[in-house]
Recover the amino acids of this structure.
């Protein structure tokens, strides 16, 4: 991989601080480029807040296909012990399954669905590929929290993502409520880059996927962002899509309710922004966490419940 300029240095002995974002949020030259996927008002909201919640994107029949596949993967004995499967600390329940766009034909089709990938292409004004995909289960009673973080800080330092030209989409497969650990975001936080302290340990990913300790902003920075911008909870019914910029500060509480909070999660990166060598003194993270060797430009597909059901039946 070629060397690249580190526009966003973090860790490596730096003091915690907030630095200005150096990249656009919306790369499209005009909001009309995103029609019919998003209205100009929605594009403006995404640029201002760093996130957008779209309700009723997928039908009940489609969501049921996703849930059936979610459950099939959870019970798939062939996945037991695989690196892609991350368990909850303590309980051993499945926390996440990574690389689902390559493991599952259903979620591969979902990642290329025009209702998702079309928006990503428009906002990033480029062809896109999946930088990372996973299922987040957050089981009832024992689903642990995800502490506040900017994904980009980790993707930049540990993966070598050069610029803020990526976004995440979380597709709600169960009801996400204020009680069962719905995604929380700090609006406007994507406009500042939170420099983190500490050095990146070797093989940090093995611990960070269960509980992240490095790449976590200092309390004072989080307090500053929250006091200025507030905190919102992205509660949503199944079939909704939560879109958020790669640098938006977000996290979620633990789930002590009986109700699981399960989402599919896709990270779309611009093909022009594909990763280089990590901006730290460590080896690249594995392919199941960071797509590096098998970059495939997404070809948009128009899908419906029938096409998803066919994929499910063919497994």
């Amino acid at each position: 991989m070629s060397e690249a300029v580190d526009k966003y240095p973090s860790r490596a002995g730096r003091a915690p601080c907030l630095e200005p974002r150096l990249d656009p949020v919306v790369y499209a030259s005009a909001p009309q480029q995103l029609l019919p996927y998003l209205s100009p008002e929605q594009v403006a909201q995404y640029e201002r807040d760093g996130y957008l919640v779209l309700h009723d994107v997928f039908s009940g029949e489609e969501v049921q296909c996703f849930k059936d596949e979610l459950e099939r993967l959870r019970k798939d004995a062939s996945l037991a012990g695989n690196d892609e499967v991350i368990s909850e600390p303590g309980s051993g329940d499945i926390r996440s399954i990574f690389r689902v766009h390559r493991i599952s034909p259903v979620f591969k089709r979902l990642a290329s669905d025009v209702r998702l990938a079309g928006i990503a292409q428009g906002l990033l004004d480029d062809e896109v590929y999946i930088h990372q995909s996973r299922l987040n289960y957050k089981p009832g009673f024992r689903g642990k929290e995800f502490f506040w973080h900017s994904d980009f800080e980790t993707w930049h330092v540990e993966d070598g993502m050069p610029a803020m030209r990526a976004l995440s989409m979380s597709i709600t497969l169960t009801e996400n409520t204020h009680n069962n650990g719905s995604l929380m975001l700090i609006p406007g936080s994507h406009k500042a880059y939170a420099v983190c302290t500490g050095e990146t340990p070797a093989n940090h990913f093995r611990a960070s996927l269960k509980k992240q300790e490095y790449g976590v902003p200092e309390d004072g920075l989080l307090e500053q962002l929250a006091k200025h911008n507030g905190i919102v909870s992205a509660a949503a019914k199944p079939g909704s899509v939560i879109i958020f910029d790669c640098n938006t500060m977000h996290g979620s509480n633990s789930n002590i309710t009986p109700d699981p909070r399960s989402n599919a999660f896709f990270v779309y990166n611009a093909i022009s922004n594909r990763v280089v060598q990590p901006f730290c003194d460590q080896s690249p993270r594995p392919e199941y966490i960071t797509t590096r060797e098998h970059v495939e430009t997404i070809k948009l597909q128009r899908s419906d419940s029938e096409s998803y059901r066919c994929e499910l039946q063919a497994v």
Observations:
- The longest helix spans residues 60-75.
